[in-house]
Input
Amino acid sequence: MAMRLLGLVMALCLGLAPMARAETKPIPVKVVVLATFEIGEVTGDRPGEFQPWVEGLPLKETIQVPGLRNPARYSPETGVLGVMTDMRARARESVAALILDKRFDFSKTYWIVAGIAGADPKVASLGSAAWANYVVDADPIYEVDDREIPTDWPYGLYSLETDRPNLKGSAHGSSGMVWALNPKLVDWAYGLTANTPIPDNGDLAKLRAGYVGEPNALKPPFVLKGDALGTTRFWHGARRTQWAEDWVKLWTDGAGTFTMTDCEDQGILDVLDLYAKAGKVDFGRVLVLRTASNYSRPPLGAPTFPRAFHGEGAMAAFDSAYRVGSVVVRELAGHWDRYENRAPKMTSIGEMAK
Output
């Protein structure tokens, strides 16, 4: 009797084994939204970068991911996963931890980095949203105190393995340095969102008003294509903005235009690129959207200080990141039959490839 009962239990266990394996099949994620920080809670209070996505999509399910300080948020209905990576160097670790979590299948996932940034007033205004064609890393760098640089140098920042500014060096073993995103996908995202209304207000107008003679800085918020420079340090000023413009031109061989400065894109893109080469993600499905919370320098001729960062600009940038980025997220997740096996592209201005 005991032997017969043992055999029954073993047979039952063997029969359930395929079902258990089926239940642990990785979740196929359609879209990952990567925000970097939140002011307070992720729901119910003053919004930062992440809260508009959690409440707006919405992302109701909480998932603890080892290696992430903050729980991920997920919508089983739409297949959208939202992640708060934390800022600066920690974003790199968070994205790697997410990719390595075997509960998720990222093989066909679209990745959207959506966060605030400083804008070059030559190119964009407060609250504006820029889709990047290029992300450039400015962390692997030589730095000389500006008070001690040679008199014929414009600034004391220059590439590794060079001996002066504006020579392209190498950062082998440190970084990929520059990442070109899928231009067809970027064009598609821009075309889909170019006419997205972004609210303006009197506070933003006051912050813009000093940039006389710089038409893009004076515009109400708008959507554009413009490239991102990543540094883990927060910088500000006219000389540093000139360096950023030069650095992006240098590393993109003249193709890129410095538009937004942030602290995370270089780490996130480096990790996504490395795991794409390992077959874990599709780098051709990566988008970077940065929105302007402040300018990277004061008006021409004005002192670098007072403060570079303004709460009014930050709130506008939080809002525009969601307003613009969510259009793309909803389109991708809502028409998965169209985009699962083929990334979208723009065939002409205002026309999406079906």
Notes: The longest helix spans residues 311-334. The chain has a mean pLDDT of 91.
